[in-house]
Specification:
Layout: E1 5-9, E2 15-19, E3 27-31, E4 37-41, E5 49-54, E6 60-64, E7 67-71, E8 77-80, E9 87-93, E10 96-101, E11 106-110, E12 115-119, E13 127-134, E14 137-142, E15 146-151, E16 156-159, E17 174-177, E18 183-186, E19 191-195, E20 203-206, H1 209-216, E21 225-230, E22 236-240, E23 245-249, E24 254-258, E25 272-277, E26 283-287, E27 292-295, E28 319-324, E29 330-334, E30 339-342, E31 348-352, E32 358-363, E33 368-373, E34 378-382, E35 388-392, E36 407-412, E37 418-422, E38 427-434, E39 437-443, E40 453-458, E41 464-468, E42 471-475, H2 477-482, E43 487-490, E44 505-510, E45 516-520, E46 525-529, E47 538-542, E48 555-559, E49 562-567, E50 570-575
Length: about 575
């Protein structure tokens, strides 16, 4: 149906009303409980429905070329000014309904008294639209005289202050209403105005089409706004065809234009057709040529930093490790192998631009930053001046050296000892300060996948847990130092429902209740149940079969009664109390 007006009416049973242009009927359609529709016509084809209005009493008003009709909640139809006026628009303000006409008459209906009053301006010009400027003022759009203000209290018309620009507010003006009852009107030359309907202000928003045309290199010569969205965050999003997306902030009255650029994170198309907001506040845009576009908005409290500012794609800005030192500096290790140091305001302090592949970061009690790398051993940096203090590597035939240069995790325990988890040759190394420098006492080496250790965690009983590629290892640090075999391994046992669900351990976490949780690759989330009298250590497993969104759990963090779990498929929340 071309030029169709559609409205859902709050009647019982609910109804839908639609009115169409000059070649189609306006109709009233009632939905029934059985899902069928009854159809009744209230306008003839020649009536040309221009507007539908449901007033605060539930009455429906239909205006068109050949007059005005009202339909009560009971279905009673009344006709007014048949073949006398061509009705163009209607609004309700404070118990009065105002109707504009092509004959330059403003008709006012008193809802309480049930009578009409006619108001004639000092000039003869067709009225096209009405809008509430405030509780006592209306904006009245005329076909050739521009925009005037009707003073409700005095019943008089006066100029709006926009008449000096009336050449832009005549036949080519377009009007859009947002869901907050604001009105936007614009001309094809790029003039845009906004009124919120409350404070009597008409805000002019300047769009420099010449500048935008030069910037985008499009063939578009006239402004075309397809929709305006009043966002839940107070911002207004303006969708255009050819000029991209505009965002208007009514607080500081600033306008930002987003257009298609070589940057792949920019707007995918300048030719936009529609816009909506979902219940989570995400903005979705329908475009020509580029499909659906989602606007990614960062909250005000989020500061996005791209260390490699020249590009945002690939692995250059993938953050693999992050750590805050005792001076509140932020150390950031990137997947491209480089290391950045920022102060608390995220100002860059140091860039280590040679490839070291930082995987693990921890500060010791001597204010040194230990940087564990994949393939380059461990670098030590002074957190005061960021100078390199030492470079520790694996050396063949030197058992006191680092057991592997592939360092995946570093733990400072409750006695300030440094423990290093590594892959390849593998094992766990305990750092020791000697006169010759830093050496290592290595444990659990040469045991295949059991020696490939990617994560270490110390619980509130001082036990250290290690996640390996072949199960979970646990030891008491003091006992292991005295006896290198003083550790216990847990593995997946397919014959037992209470074993680990996977031997590939990604992360370990202890919550405020003292429970140990294990994130696995392929086995979901495990909860450690410590042995009691007559029982052995057990594990409860939670996988996709129990409602988990993913069987790969890469990170765990507690908040209240919930664990937040990161995975390859995003973020999920797990209730510790009912396991949901």
């Amino acid at each position: 149906m071309a030029n169709c007006l559609l409205m859902k009416i709050s009647m019982n049973p609910p109804v839908v009303m639609y009115g169409c242009g000059e070649k189609e009927l306006g109709q009233f359609v009632c939905t029934k409980e059985d899902g069928n529709f009854d159809q009744q016509s209230y306008l003839q084809a020649e009536d040309a429905c221009n507007f539908l209005l449901e007033d605060s009493s539930g009455k429906i008003w239909i205006g068109g070329k050949n007059g005005l009709k009202s339909i009560s909640e009971q279905g009673e139809v009344k006709e007014f000014y048949t073949y006398e006026y061509y009705f163009t628009h209607a609004i309700e303000v404070e118990g009065m309904i105002y109707f504009s006409t092509m004959e330059s008459e403003l008709l006012i209906y008193d809802m309480k008294r049930g009578i009409f009053e006619e108001v004639t301006p000092a000039f003869n010009d067709a009225m096209t639209h009405l809008f509430r400027l405030s509780s006592h003022e209306l904006l009245v759009f005329f076909d050739s005289k521009g925009v005037w203000i009707y003073d409700i209290s005095y019943g008089t018309f006066h100029q709006s202050g926009l008449n000096c620009e009336k050449e832009h507010l005549t036949s080519d003006v377009e009007i859009i209403y947002d869901k907050k009852k604001g009105v936007w009107f614009y001309s094809k030359s790029g003039r845009l105005w906004y009124c919120n309907g409350e404070d009597s202000r008409i805000r002019r928003i300047n769009i420099d089409l010449n500048k935008d045309l030069a910037m985008m290199g499009t063939g578009q010569t006239a402004l075309s706004i397809d929709a305006v969205l009043a966002g839940s965050d107070g911002l207004y999003w303006i969708v255009t065809y050819g000029f991209g997306l505009f965002c208007y902030n009514p607080v500081d009255e600033t306008l930002v234009n987003y257009t298609n650029q070589p940057d792949p994170s920019s707007l995918a198309s300048n030719y936009l057709l529609s816009i909506t907001e979902d219940r989570l506040g995400n903005i979705w845009i329908g475009s020509e040529y580029a499909g659906i576009i989602r606007v990614v908005k960062s909250p005000e409290y989020v500061h996005v930093v791209h260390p490699e500012a020249g590009t945002i794609i690939g692995k250059t800005n993938n953050v693999r490790s992050i750590y805050e030192d005792s001076k509140e500096n932020i150390w950031v290790g990137l997947k491209n192998g480089e290391l950045y140091v920022y102060d608390s305001a995220m100002n860059l302090k140091k860039h280590i631009d040679w490839v070291i592949n930082p995987y693990a970061l921890v500060e010791d009690n001597q204010r040194r930053m230990w940087v564990g790398t994949k393939g380059y051993g461990i670098y030590l940096f002074d957190i005061e001046n960021y100078n390199e203090l030492a470079h520790l590597t694996h050396k063949k035939n030197k058992p006191e050296s680092l057991c592997s240069d592939a360092v995946f995790h570093i733990l400072k325990d409750n006695k300030n000892r440094i423990w290093v988890a590594s892959f390849e040759n593998g094992g766990i190394g305990l750092a020791q300060e000697t006169k010759e420098g830093i050496t290592f006492k290595n444990f659990i080496t040469g045991k295949g996948n059991k020696s490939m250790i990617r994560y270490l965690y110390q619980d509130n009983k001082e036990r250290i847990w290690g996640g390996t590629s072949d199960g979970l290892v646990r030891f008491n640090p003091g006992e292991l130092i005295r006896n290198p075999d003083a550790y216990v391994f847990y593995n997946m046992d397919l014959t037992s429902p209470y074993s680990l669900s996977s031997n590939d351990i990604k992360t370990i976490y202890q919550d405020t209740n003292g429970d140990i949780w294990i994130g696995t690759a392929g086995g979901g989330l495990d909860k450690y149940i410590e042995a009691r009298e007559g029982t052995s250590d057990q594990f409860l497993s939670f996988t996709i079969g129990e409602g988990m969104p993913d069987n790969y759990v890469l990170g765990i963090l507690e908040h209240g009664d919930y664990l937040w779990l990161s995975s390859e498929n995003g973020l999920s929340r797990f209730c510790k109390n009912d396991y949901s």
